[in-house]
Design goal:
By secondary structure, this protein is mainly alpha-helical. It is built from two helices and no strands.
Length: about 90
């Protein structure tokens, strides 16, 4: 925690409604959408790493990993829930 008095009691970005100097000033920081290039890059990296799991596993242990349907449906449910939350906000 910083002891800099210029940051104020709430830290950087804190606005005090009683302080006339703070009125109308934008808070520090911003949030922006994820670029299409980043989404495509992560999707391609996931595909490549996912395709490498079976050959690497075969080479290391001699057997391929098996996945039951429960994790598949759990992942599908989580993706649908995150998509619903993203759509509703």
């Amino acid at each position: 925690m910083s002891r800099d008095p210029s940051l104020g009691p709430g830290g950087p970005g804190h606005q005090d409604p009683e302080d006339p100097d703070d009125r109308g000033r934008d808070p520090v920081g911003h949030v922006r959408t994820t670029s299409a290039g980043a989404v495509v890059g992560f999707a391609l990296a996931g595909l490549v790493l996912g395709r490498l799991v079976r050959p690497v596993s075969l080479r290391i242990s001699g057997t391929a990993p098996t996945v039951s349907w429960l994790p598949v449906f759990a992942l599908l449910f989580c993706a649908a829930f995150v998509g619903w939350v993203a759509w509703s906000t």
